[in-house]
Amino acid sequence: MNDFDFDFEFDFGGGVNELDINAICKEMTQSERIVFDLAQGTRQLKYLLRDFDENKDYRFLSNGKGFSSINFIDWVCSSFGEIEQLYCSTLGVGKKHILHLSELPIKHAHFVVGNIFEESKIIQEYGYYSTFVNICREKGWTFSAAKNHSKILLMKTKQKFFVLEGSGNLNENPKIEQFCFMCDKSLYLWYEKFFKALKQC
CA-to-CA distance for 170 and 96, rounded, in angstroms? Predict the structure, then answer.
């Protein structure tokens, strides 16, 4: 990293101190790209939920090196077994994430994705959408596209009903994301009505 000398002049005209910057320059090396580690994210979440109480709601903030929404699916599968029904509302789905979901014990799944995930040329070039479509077809999962920006996960196991609300898509993202996680049958059923209605559109 190279530092350059900066010349700052103060303009005292009119009785107001103003910083007059003519030009500045700073050369920096590009910061290292954050690489998402799915297994590490699940370990973090397991630690944070080590005393999980289904009568409580949990709020989380996670940065780019932390966990994402897929780690909650991991946690439910490892803690309570097969997910009989998964509903997922997200702008898009990462390639590694749909591949990982295909290896988890998930019986039925329905995804509501954003139109941009279906239509974006960049997403098409990287094969995200085609991978998503192919795996859904192989697994017998369903999906639909809409003007969608919501992020909701519903996970039903044999005896539990989980809901995840948050800002994160079902992909890796180096931004800070927030999540609200709960075991709540009534809320699950309330959201499920919305998902079922969308499937019929």
Answer: 10
